[in-house]
Design a protein that fits this description.
alpha+beta; two-stranded antiparallel ribbon; 4 strands; globular; 82 residues
Length: 82
């Protein structure tokens, strides 16, 4: 299955861009930041936090519930982290 977007470290966060962008292409992230797709990505940058705006737009496109999700505490399940 081909995804419409992929994640790219940029400007201190992980942002989503269209998956068909190749190295050296100019692209906009889902939150609207312009970037040039780099040829190589150092692994350390993948540990950056995810951009909340890109995450929200990506989840809406994929039909995934927004994060953080509502937590429903039940006696048979541990309480959610707050």
């Amino acid at each position: 299955m081909t995804r419409a977007f992929r994640w790219m470290p940029h400007d201190g966060r992980r942002h989503a861009i269209r998956s068909d962008r190749a190295p050296r292409d100019h692209a906009d992230t889902l939150c609207g930041l312009p970037l040039t797709v780099p040829h190589a990505q150092p692994y350390v940058h993948w540990c950056w936090p995810t951009c909340p705006a890109c995450d929200t737009a990506w989840r809406a496109h994929e039909g995934i519930a927004a994060f953080p999700r509502q937590c429903h505490e039940r006696p048979d399940r541990p309480a959610c982290a707050r």
